Every structure is written in structure tokens, then in C-alpha cells.
Amino acid sequence: MQLQQKEKSNRNARWLVCFAGLLAAVVLLFFWNIRAGSVSLSVGYIAEILQGMHGEDTAYQIIWGIRLPRVLAALLLGGALSISGFLLQTFFHNPIAGPFVLGISSGAKLVVALVMIFLLGKGIAVSSSVLILAAFVGSMICMGFILLLSRKAEGMSVLIIGGVMIGYICSAI
After folding, report:
1. Quick one: which of 81, 70, 1, 4 has its CA closest to 35?
2. Residue 99 pLDDT > 80
3. Which pLDDT band, with edges at 50, 70 and 90, does 22 fall under?
4. Which one, of 85, 112, 89, lies nearest residue 170 by Cα?
5. Residues 6+ apart with CB under 8 A from 31
6. Residue-wise pLDDT tens digits, 36-78
7. Is the Cβ–Cβ distance between 156 and 94 less than 8 Å?
8. Quick check: 94 and 125 in contact, CB under 8 A?
9. Which helix (H) or strand (E) holds 10?
């Protein structure tokens, strides 16, 4: 009994160390990414800008208008992609299921490409929100095909194969 508790304690300590290391890496990369760019800024100056001490200079606009949104978008999108992979693996009870394997990301790319070709061919400027909406619609269409296939499929391997097929079809188009 004590051996099991000790193993559980060791396992929890390893998870804590891993989580702390990953958190430290995220913080370090966060500040490195804010600092990286064609305009060289010191860490102290960036900290002053983030605290609001310099309000109207060019560096303030670079940090708040370009670099900080870029870093926050990378954090949010990376987290969303990992959560979507986890949810797909849980839903399909398959450790290799994910948005890339099931063709969902290929469907998103296809609809974005079609929207860009159609609208830019007519000379209409495309905003990023339109492209995000197109990617969402494309991913939902492919996910719908996978869910329809799940009604007829007998095993999870058929769903994975169907998703790979949908991904290749979308990539071919």
C-alpha cells in the first residue's frame, strides 16, 4: 500500500516538474517573441511599454499593435489545436485521431482557397474574418462527412481511413 502511494507521489512530482518547465518555457518564449523583430528593443524597455509608461512612440505601437497580438494569437491557436486533437481522440476512442488525420484541416484549407479564388478573381478584397469564417465552414463540412460516415462504419479504423480519404480529396481539389 505504501509502495503505491510512493509511486503516485513520484508520478505527481514528475507531472509538476514537467508542467513547471513547460510554463517557464512558455513565459521565456513569450518575451523572446515580443523582443524578436526588425526593431531591436531591450527587455526593460518592453516591460516599461507593457506597463504603459511610454504611450505614443513607435515602439509602443509596434509592441501593442503587432508583436503582442501575434504572440497572443499563437498561444490561443496552439492551445485550441491541442484541445481539438484531445477532443477528437476522446470522441473517436483512437489515439491517432486529430484534425489533420481526419481531413478537417484540409477541408478548412480547401474552402479558404476557394473563397480567395472566387473573391479575389472578382477584385473583392478579403478580410481575415472572412477567411476565418471560410475555414470554420470548411472544417465543419468535413467533420459532418466524418460524422455521417460514423453512422455506417463498424469500427474506428474505418473513420480514420475515411478522414484520410477526405483529406486527400480536399488536397487534390
Report:
1. 70
2. no
3. very high
4. 112
5. 43, 46
6. 888 888 888 888 888 877 767 788 888 888 888 889 998 998 8
7. yes
8. no
9. helix 2-35
pTM for the predicted model, two decimal places: 0.62
What values do phi and psi take at 40, rounded to 5? -80, 125
88: number of CA atoms within 13 Å, CB side?
23
Strand, helix or coil for residue 96: coil
Is-contact 142 166, C-beta < 8 A?
A: yes
Distance of alpha carbon 69 from alpha carbon 40, whole angstroms: 18
Q: What is the mean pLDDT of the chain?
A: 85
Residue for grid cell 509511486: 7
Instruction: Return the higher-pLDDT residue of 113 and 5.
Output: 113
C-alpha cell at 43: 527587455
Q: Is 53 helix (H, G, I), strand (E, B) or coil?
A: coil
Crossing angle of helices 2-35 and 43-50, rounded to 10°:
90
- Provide CB contacts within 8 A for 58, sequence distance 6+: 39
pLDDT at 2: 66
CB proximity list for 64: less than 8 A, separation 6 or greater: 49
Measured distance CA(143)–CA(123) in Å, rounded: 31
Place of cell 509538476: 16
Q: Which of 131, 136, 138, 132 is nearest to 169 (CA)?
A: 138
